[in-house]
Design goal:
- By secondary structure, the protein is mostly helical.
- The protein is about 45% helix and about 0% strand.
- The chain is built from one helix and no strands.
- It has one helix at about 1-25.
- The N and C termini lie far apart (about 75 Å).
Length: about 55
């Protein structure tokens, strides 16, 4: 009997999470936007494969 109860609770939690995401993103269009890509802000970048000098 405890296995059925545990399985039922786990399935309910999964169903609730999927429904919550579907309602928030699909119906309300309130999904959080992904963060913008990070820029390369290193002070000095070496090009190890390039033997020549840049001018």
């Amino acid at each position: 009997m405890p296995i059925k109860l545990t399985l039922s609770i786990a399935l309910f939690l999964i169903w609730g999470f999927v429904s919550w995401r579907w309602y928030g993103c699909g119906i309300k269009q309130a999904c959080p936007e992904p963060p913008p890509p990070l820029e390369d802000v290193r002070p000095l970048v070496f090009e190890w494969g390039n033997a020549g000098q840049k001018k």
